[in-house]
Write a structure and sequence with these properties.
81% of the residues lie in helices and 0% in strands. It has 389 residues and is mainly α. The protein has one domain: Up-down Bundle (Growth Hormone, Chain: A). The chain is globular, with a radius of gyration of 20 Å.
Length: 389
Amino acid sequence: MQYEKTIRACFVGYIVQAVVNNFIPLLFLTLQRQYGIPLSQITALITVNFAVQLTVDLLSAFWIDRIGYRKAVVAAHVFAAVGLLLLPVLPEFLPPFAGILTAVILYAVGGGLLEVLVSPIMESCPTENKETAMSLLHSFYCWGQVGVVLLSTLFFRFAGIAHWKLLAALWAVIPAVNGVLFARVPIAPLVAPEEVRIRPRELLKSRLFRLLLLMMICAGASELAVSQWASFFAEEALHIGKTAGDLAGPMTFGVLMGTARTFYGKYGEKIPLDRFMTGSAVLCIISYLMIALAPLPAVSLAGCALCGLSVGILWPGTFSKASASLRRGGTLMFSLLALGGDIGCSSGPTLVGAVAGAANMKTGILAAAVFPAGLILCMYLISSERSRS
């Protein structure tokens, strides 16, 4: 198949995205201790990461079509690689927090571009079922997250957490190699040709699109509110050792999230997407209640894992609904949906951190249950609108 290498490069692109989003949360406690960085600034690293990504999402809607997808996706990998390489270097030459923040901004630019580019590049490849292909694509983010946590944990166990700077440089190899691959693979034109693409004003006036955008915000927030704080939560709130906490918290979260996406990628033709997404959002609320209210650490950790299973379909499912409902959306639609997703990725962990700072981490997680509840409401409103039309 002509586009087989392109599809593989897209899969690895989401692994790069997983490295960008999930490596530094494993270091939160280490950075706090090594550099004396307070919790408010640790929270800012999450906020800035996704704030930069959402800014890139918004701006890319206006210039990606001009420079072309190939140049843009190669640039995304360059930014990701450079940011990861500078993460251990800049704190030695700048004030530690400023150095770390600068590196985060650089790789966040790459992450934002990947979020906008990889899905439409995959969408343009000839595949039999777009919904299941999209779910399978997004499962590689989960397997990337699992790989980041597992390999990083093994590295810390045998080499020591003090050598985290070497590991950051090693993770930079993946975007460097995949950027070279994207420079060579064929990239098909988007499904919607330029002359029929929806105009920005028309898209923004669409109530269906606005609901889909709100769904993306809720999907991103539901996913990241737990995964970004899982390692910190296990160590601080549950008093579990770092190795056990990382394996039982963020890694199990990623395994079950990937399992949900891979399952739908394989069997999705037999399961209505709307029903699967609604049930997943309900399960997400249950998992938040387990994390926040359970008296036993084991039950709270089980809630973290269950959360991964529950959020698996929310992000790719919303992309698939948008692709099927708004066929003329093009780059603009994917950019704005990625923007919404990154708003959620920023607001979910930020809300948890803010509430945790005022109360405690369990209360912070409980507050984030508003996001899966909001997604259920959006699904209901979209279904009601369709029944009226």
